[in-house]
Automatic annotation (TrEMBL), chain A:
<dbReference type="GO" id="GO:0046982">
    <property type="term" value="F:protein heterodimerization activity"/>
</dbReference>
<comment type="similarity">
    <text>Belongs to the TRM112 family.</text>
</comment>
<dbReference type="GO" id="GO:0070476">
    <property type="term" value="P:rRNA (guanine-N7)-methylation"/>
</dbReference>
<dbReference type="GO" id="GO:0005654">
    <property type="term" value="C:nucleoplasm"/>
</dbReference>
<keyword id="KW-0539">Nucleus</keyword>
<dbReference type="GO" id="GO:0030488">
    <property type="term" value="P:tRNA methylation"/>
</dbReference>
<dbReference type="Pfam" id="PF03966">
    <property type="entry name" value="Trm112p"/>
</dbReference>
<keyword id="KW-0963">Cytoplasm</keyword>
<dbReference type="InterPro" id="IPR005651">
    <property type="entry name" value="Trm112-like"/>
</dbReference>
Automatic annotation (TrEMBL), chain B:
<keyword id="KW-0489">Methyltransferase</keyword>
<feature type="region of interest" description="Disordered">
    <location>
        <begin position="136"/>
        <end position="196"/>
    </location>
</feature>
<comment type="similarity">
    <text>Belongs to the methyltransferase superfamily.</text>
</comment>
<dbReference type="GO" id="GO:0016423">
    <property type="term" value="F:tRNA (guanine) methyltransferase activity"/>
</dbReference>
<dbReference type="InterPro" id="IPR029063">
    <property type="entry name" value="SAM-dependent_MTases_sf"/>
</dbReference>
<dbReference type="InterPro" id="IPR053943">
    <property type="entry name" value="RlmKL-like_Mtase_CS"/>
</dbReference>
<feature type="compositionally biased region" description="Polar residues">
    <location>
        <begin position="162"/>
        <end position="177"/>
    </location>
</feature>
<keyword id="KW-0694">RNA-binding</keyword>
<keyword id="KW-0963">Cytoplasm</keyword>
Length: 123, 491
């Protein structure tokens, strides 16, 4: 599971109001090389919840020097875009789980696939 | 008697005749030929668009569905293998728009036999030879289910030649001089550079495949193939072999339109990305057509909420790689197969030395209750359960409306799009008619999937925010009302 995907995922347990962002508990993380495209990253940033991305990177010990707030004029800041590219697409959680911040419910991640299926009583 | 249409594109351009180490040249004249391609029915225009974009020529869509034709020069031949919307390719030997069939079967078949020696085979055979060279250089893999190699622009290096490959025949069948067009240089010198030298001339093996459509013909496709094939065999002194052939001659008869061609591809191009199949894996050419329809933009978030083996998002991650794909399914086997297919492609890329990571992820989820933020998705693209191949009619009746609602919720209002393939057109039409506040139908493409007629629906997400349209409020009251309708309306 890449952190870009994590940024889109939310807990949908019945009754939960604040199911985002999901907390990450990783037991296996890998870093995979993905071709860098500055335009892709720059256009993706407005679609992200920035603080959730930083928090997730922090949880995995992969934050490095990613700032808490977006830098101005990031569109042309290639160094910054490369850092964002790395955490968005190259860092992957292979094994672990995601946890709903409100209910505590855990969703396992196995082979990089988060299992978000709910039980009947949770829907 | 037969209305002959000469190939209007024959030209000769002299090229420096020196070395032939480059696989793109024949070492001699560059000639122009017409190439035909079979494409998923319904996506002829999409394929023509791709030809225009990647080859720069205008393609002609045939009256015979699922076929397009376009001209190409031999120095650019390799480009045909970059096309992602075509299932099979062939070079045209001759086209007859209004072939006059004789009254009796006997006479018709004799005419076909006589045709064999009159056709302008030369150029087409040159192209076939050139094409065989190209395929060897790219390590093009043989038929079957696997996808070990992909003929695309990623790899230009001449990697291992597959041992299963056919030998490049040395015998040139154009020596008879029956044609008024003859290339001045032979390709023999070129071919020796690329494959193991075979000193003696080998007998070429061939077969004829005939497809016939129309209700006024006095003969069957088998008879035509047999008689035409017999004449071809006599004329060229080739050997007929149904399974291990070097050349496949195509005889396509569609009412009065007759096209004779030579195949440039083997059967399995349309399963190129998938190594781990599922029960309903969609062919890659169809996936490509659907993706082209929704025009993925840079940084689009694209979801396939019922991904099966991941064919659609994987094709997207490769061909439209400036977007990000999330493939999801509720089924264990499906998500595992999807990950296997992704890993397979990534490993292939890593082996070639390129950055292997693809912009795609896989999640296990319930599509009627997506764990995705509201209004965050740009495109939803999927193959919805058909009811015959998977799922059931009754299940679809409940599934489709819930699906559409949930997909509307996650889609970006105003700009979001959906491209949905389904065979259950009645159920879909009903579901969509109740969703006017959330989805608008833009376009429908009628296709053929595994013999079943299906529709690819292109939808646009309206600007209405979710939770505020009458549809949301009504639908959220639960399945009780629908139950009664099921019993009376289901056929």
């Amino acid at each position: 599971m890449k952190l870009l995907t994590h940024n889109m995922l939310t807990s949908h347990v019945k009754g939960v109001i604040k199911g985002y962002p999901l907390l990450i508990k990783a037991t296996e993380v890998k870093v995979n090389e993905v071709e860098f495209n500055p335009q892709f990253v720059s256009r993706m940033i407005p679609k992200l919840e920035w603080s959730a991305l930083v928090q997730a990177a922090e949880e995995l010990g992969q934050r490095q020097d990613l700032p808490s707030d977006l830098v101005p004029d990031y569109e042309t800041n290639e160094e910054f875009l490369k850092k964002v590219h790395r955490v968005l697409l190259e860092v992957e959680v292979v094994e672990g789980c995601l946890q709903c911040p409100e209910s505590g419910r855990e969703f396992p991640i196995s082979r990089g696939i988060p299992n978000m299926l709910l039980n009947e009583d949770e829907v | 008697m037969c209305h002959l249409r000469e190939n209007p594109h024959i030209q000769h351009t002299a090229l420096p005749s020196s070395s032939c180490t480059d696989c793109d040249t024949t070492g001699g004249d560059v000639i122009t030929v017409t190439v035909g391609a079979t494409v998923p029915t319904g996506f002829e225009h999409t394929a023509a668009e791709e030809v225009k974009e990647k080859i720069g020529v205008d393609a002609r869509i045939s009256k015979d569905r699922g076929r397009i034709y376009f001209p190409i020069t031999t120095d650019k031949l390799f480009q045909v293998h970059l096309l992602r919307s075509v299932d099979n390719l062939f070079v045209v030997v001759q086209e007859y728009e209004h072939y006059q069939f004789s009254e009796s079967k006997e006479e018709t078949l004799i005419d076909l036999q006589q045709l064999a020696s009159k056709l302008p085979w030369t150029n087409a055979l040159e192209v076939w030879k050139l094409n065989s060279t190209l395929k060897k250089k790219k390590g093009h893999r043989r038929g079957g289910n696997g996808s070990k190699g992909k003929p695309n622009s990623e790899a230009h290096d001449a990697t291992a030649v597959d041992n299963e490959q056919q030998e490049l025949p040395q015998a040139s069948p154009t020596a008879e001089g029956q044609s008024d067009v003859e290339p001045t240089a032979q390709t023999d010198t070129c071919s020796q550079d690329v494959e193991e030298a075979t000193p003696e001339a080998k007998v070429i093996k061939f077969r004829v495949t005939c497809s016939r459509a129309g209700d006024k013909h006095s003969f069957s496709s088998n008879e035509a193939a047999r008689d035409f094939g017999g004449a071809v065999q006599e004329f060229f002194e080739w050997k007929a072999d149904m399974t291990k052939f070097d050349i496949e001659v195509l005889l396509n008869i569609h009412n009065n339109e007759v096209v004779i061609g030579i195949a440039l591809t083997e059967e399995s191009l349309h399963r190129r990305n998938i190594s781990h199949f599922g029960p309903t894996t969609l062919r890659s050419t169809l996936c490509y057509g659907m993706l082209r329809l929704c025009k993925p933009q840079a940084s689009d978030i694209i979801l396939d909420p019922m991904c099966g083996t991941g064919a659609i998002p994987l094709e997207g991650a490769i061909e439209f790689h400036n977007s990000f794909y999330i493939a999801g399914d509720n089924n264990d086997m499906a998500v595992n197969r999807t990950v296997n297919n992704i890993c397979h492609i990534q490993k292939r890329r890593a082996d070639k030395g390129s950055a292997s990571g693809l912009p795609i992820d896989t999640v296990q989820w319930d599509l009627c209750n997506l764990p995705i933020r509201t209004s965050s998705v740009d495109i939803i693209i999927t193959d919805m359960p058909f009811g015959k191949r998977m799922g059931s009619r009754k299940k679809n009746w409940d599934l489709y409306p819930s699906c559409l609602r949930e997909m509307a919720r996650v889609s970006r209002p105003g700009s979001g799009k959906a491209v949905l393939l389904t065979q259950d057109k009645k159920c879909f039409a009903k579901a969509i008619s109740r969703m006017g506040g959330l989805w608008r139908k833009l376009h429908t493409v009628w296709v053929n999937v595994g013999g079943l007629h299906a529709g690819v629906y292109l939808l646009k997400r309206t600007g209405a925010l979710f939770g505020q349209t009458p549809e949301d409020v009504y639908e959220s009251r639960g399945p009780v009302e629908r139950q009664e309708k099921d019993d009376t309306e289901l056929s």
